[in-house]
Amino acid sequence: MAKGRTGGLKLVYDFWRRHIPLAVLLVVLTAFASAVAVAFPYLLRLIIDGIKSEITGRKLLSYVLILSGFGLARAVADVLLPFIRGRTNERFQWEVRSGVFSRLLYFDYRFTNRFPSGDAMERLDHDLQELSWFACSGIFRFVAGALLALFTLVMLLRMNWLLTLVTVVPVSLGVFGWLRLGPKIYGLFMRWREQIAEINNQLQSAFAGIRLVKAFVTADGMSRRFTETLNRRVGLAVRETRFEARLQVLYMAIAELALLLVLWVGGGLVIARRLTLGEFVAFNVYQLMLLPTMFDIGNLFVTGRRARGAEERIRELVSEDFSIRRGAAELNPVPGEIRLERVTFSYEQVPVVRNVSMVIPPGRKIGIAGTVGSGKSTLLRLILRLMEPDAGMVKLNSTDIRELNLTAYRQLFGYAPQEPVLFSDTLRNNILFGRQADEARLWELLQLVQLDGDVREFAQGLDEPLGERGTGLSGGQKARVALARALLTQPEIVILDDATSGLDADTEQEFFARLFTALPDRTFIIVSHRLKVLSACDYIYVLDRGEISEQGTPAELLSRSGLYYRLYERQLLREELEKLDS
Amino acid sequence: MFHGEFMPPEEEERAQGRAIDYLRRLWPFFSPYLGRIVAAGLLLLVSSGLSLLGPVLLKRAIDVNLARGDLRGLAVTSLLYLAVQAGIFAATYFQLVWLAQVGERGAANLKRRLFEHILKLPMSFFDQNPSGRLISRVESDTEALKMLFTRTSVVLLQSGLMLVGMSVIMGITSWRLYLLVAMLLPPFVLAFYLFQKKVRPVYLEVRRRVADINNLVVEALRGLPVIQVFNQEGNFAARMDRLNRQKFTGELKASYLWYAVWFLVDFGELLGIGLVLAVGGSWALKGALTVGTLVLFISYISQLFAPLRAISDQINIMQRAFASAERALKILDQQPEPAGRITGPLGFNRAIEFERVWFAYEGEEYVLRDINLRIGRGEKVALVGETGGGKSSLIGLILKFYRPQQGKILFDGIDLQEIDNDSLRRLTGFVPQEVVLFPGTVLDNLRLFDQAVAPEQVIRAAERVRIDESIRRFAQGYDTPVTEAGANLSLGERQLLAFARALVRDPQILILDEATSAVDPHTEQLIQEGLRELLAGRTAIIIAHRLATIQLVDRIVVVHKGRIAEQGTHEELLRKDGIYARFFRLQFVEQEARTDG
Ligand SMILES: Nc1ncnc2c1ncn2[C@@H]1O[C@H](COP(=O)(O)OP(=O)(O)OP(=O)(O)O)[C@@H](O)[C@H]1O
Ligand SMILES: Nc1ncnc2c1ncn2[C@@H]1O[C@H](COP(=O)(O)OP(=O)(O)OP(=O)(O)O)[C@@H](O)[C@H]1O
Ligand SMILES: [Mg+2]
Ligand SMILES: [Mg+2]
């Protein structure tokens, strides 16, 4: 078999290495089932020949009983085998999906830039199903088919070699044909699946962006594109059916040809008295048994190829290790001063942070300002070690953070990203997010982020389901849930990436006032576009195109007329105030 | 934002209405192919009829030709058999191909119709139906219907014919033996029926778990940084493992049932063969029956159970298909957005006027109350106010996303409802509060896949909102692909793209809903300076939380708790010392005092 050696189907190979006893059991059972199946027509032959030679009723009855016993054994094997195979397929699916998914959880932006979540989902769903069928059913149906064919051949040869030849030729023809034509079906099938993905894509775009579709009057264009895709799909599907119909007819023809040949040649032999009638009927039955095996045998190669494609698509997800390397030293971090030393970072060769050095002393509030796309969010991600700098380093208490235990290091932080991320779960679980806290602490927190009033109005309070299948929250509410999550553990260092921009001025002011009172001695790193927020900080860094263009206390920065001053001069609205005064 | 939902779990499994009504309404999508349908049906009859002849000829070969040693007779029988088979092949081929064509085309017709219809439905429909659900209406439900036409009908007909045909032939050959076999059938029919009833909820459960798993994958990958910062990798892995286990158990449960039936069939077959051999064999020994008859019965018995099972499978599939039909047809029953009768290229000459407008999304919960507002041509108006005050809703009315329950909106003196939606919307350039980006390149997103828009036009718009320079710095410039939800762009950049997109159309009326909330004040300042010249002679409606955003405007309208609380110029409103003045002071004045002092 092609597995293992070529490097393809490694997931399947590894699976069986983990489950050797199961493999042995399956082989034994398969052999047993094939043997029983082959014995059945033989007994049938005995009975028919018996009837022909007018045996006694008693003898006939005992034959029938034996036959029934074998039939029962066959029935059990017939059920047991597919059941075990199906169970194993599912088991494989489970192990591989859990395994791949838990690796993905450690990957950084390089992964999400490359694979849209829908694509990854698709691979862990349909491709995995395809592969898992092959992993057990595909392989062991081949084994069963091959054994059955082999045993049958032995039985046939014992009866009559000429008729055996006549029986085997069409079946071999079938195996050969399937080997040639099967892959073509696969090609058509893949193209057809691409069309389906394309259709889903278009539907999703149109429905999720309906406001835009309506406002920009693009419904006609969308319908046109949709119709074109549909037509392509119809064309492809019709071609596929034509091909499949041809194949089906071809196989019916092979089967009938085989039966006819046996009838014809076998009949001749019976008339010539070189074959008993019972043997003739047995041949017929063997032939019927042999015919389906031509698919099972050929299938190993046809579905094997498909499985290999599917496996590649799954392994592609984890083929490159996009995870953050865990440090060799694994030191335990102690809260303290964070220092960035000449940090440089590029996304896909486009530099976005250049030579940035920063000091974030404990207990201080550090503001970060800067133009659109200047690298503020990126800088925060580097501090959180969500990705690694290309050059330079981030240090905590003069230790390179790469030498620290990553989990413990991240535990120092509370983080609210620029866009709130919520999961379809209850409000409570979205705030707790795998950590513990009692009811009182939660309400204290809700008060801090000014969500307590809103939550009281929810039908199920803290247990309100959110997300996909739950009710929706307004943008401002989502932002406040994310803030609550960040502050739950009263972390040493709080990182807020413009997380309050969805709030109106009133709410925002109140939030920061409460925050600074609740956590007086913590370190804050705050990105904001609002002067009001920034001026509450002790020290500000101003980013421009990935470089620090200015730094200083808010007052210092305003007194210089640098970028900061320019950024916020309008917000000061001096003229307006003067007008008001006059 | 984008890639929002995925397949929600199956909803109703059974249709409420009558099957015949659904069929009648679905018929027009398939009726253009009437000829093919009839022809395929006839061929189906032919091939099923012919395939019954196979075992009869076999019997003849055994009983007549072989028994008499008649080699020539055997040849004739074989040739007959060959002819019959050739007929079956031809009939099968054309029947398969024609029906598949009809099914595909009919389903495509239905899909197109649904898609076009959905796009025309009012916004309130989309508020109630997440996009994942709509996708499965257009995609999965129509596929289920296709299967109904191409497979279910065939299988039912074929299996029915087979059953009847086999019964007739067996009955004619030996009615006594047939009675024996027929007695076996009823318990099996009952068993199949019970199986379907039991397995249906199990499969539904499995499909739900699959949906949960897919949902988890998508959510986790989108929220990856948050999961990592909060050290939740282990918890999410455990959650996945739990769902996988549940799916596994569900599948196992289904397969227990499945194989129990399978076993039953095997057992029934065995019972039948045993019975035929024991009883029929003893009759044959007495000479009351030929061996050929025995062989014929045995080969029919193994074919008898397949159609029985197929029929019961298809009845289940049929019920689900009708539930699909019901869901799809319900969508076609929805009234599209009322389109006004005044069409054609429209100009905006005088004003948009709100006269005592009341609006609620649902029932009596008014989010806009008694709005009176006039926006003249060439005027620039800002809408400000607290979160949830109703600013976006007001804009939604102007764009005719929704219609007011009371009062009137006049466009150049004409009731807005009289004006064609598309003609009106073509006048506007709209930047929604939430950025929508489509899978495609930056350029695709800026011109919304409209190849007719020249790249230069796009670049000019990008320059105006100061995003051109950033785009050129991207790895592939304007051809840079936008990854899911625009995650490879900074939030500010995404907003500027949406802004540029509105300008590409060179609109007469510009509507900005918090278009620059994540943009730094400096860039915003530059944009406004650029806009000043662009907006000369045009109309603009601008919503902003940040008061610095609204320096361009002639007039400020404060929307507070669904009402217009005050309006006027900046100075007028400050002098009035109302809501606006308080807002303004909160944002700036305190600040001023501190930095100066
Ligand atoms: N599609 C909708 N269905 C039902 N209610 C809605 C819908 N959209 C908005 N609302 C409700 O209508 C009210 C006004 O909302 P709207 O979005 O107009 O406020 P807004 O002034 O734009 O607020 P923001 O500054 O937060 O954008 C809110 O109470 C909101 O919850
Ligand atoms: N995942 C990514 N892949 C490729 N490029 C990215 C990715 N994320 C951000 N960028 C690019 O890096 C630059 C800096 O982005 P970043 O999000 O750090 O900016 P920012 O200062 O936070 O901007 P904003 O004020 O808009 O939030 C931008 O030009 C952006 O397009
Ligand atoms: Mg950012
Ligand atoms: Mg709004």
UniProtKB/TrEMBL annotation, chain B:
GO cellular component: plasma membrane
Membrane topology field: Multi-pass membrane protein
CDD domains: ABC_6TM_TmrA_like (cd18544), ABCC_Glucan_exporter_like (cd03254)
Transmembrane segments: 33-58, 79-100, 177-195, 256-280, 287-306
Gene3D superfamilies referenced in this protein's UniProt entry, alphabetically: ABC transporter type 1, transmembrane domain, P-loop containing nucleotide triphosphate hydrolases
Keyword Oxidoreductase set for record: no
Keywords attached to this entry: ATP-binding, Cell membrane, Membrane, Nucleotide-binding, Transmembrane, Transmembrane helix, Transport
Pfam families membership: ABC_membrane (PF00664), ABC_tran (PF00005)
Coiled coil (UniProt feature): none
Domain ABC transporter: 352-586
InterPro entries membership: AAA+_ATPase, ABC1_TM_dom, ABC1_TM_sf, ABC_transporter-like_ATP-bd, ABC_transporter-like_CS, P-loop_NTPase, Type_1_exporter
Domain ABC transmembrane type-1: 38-320
Protein name: ABC transporter ATP-binding protein
Source organism (scientific name): candidate division WOR-3 bacterium
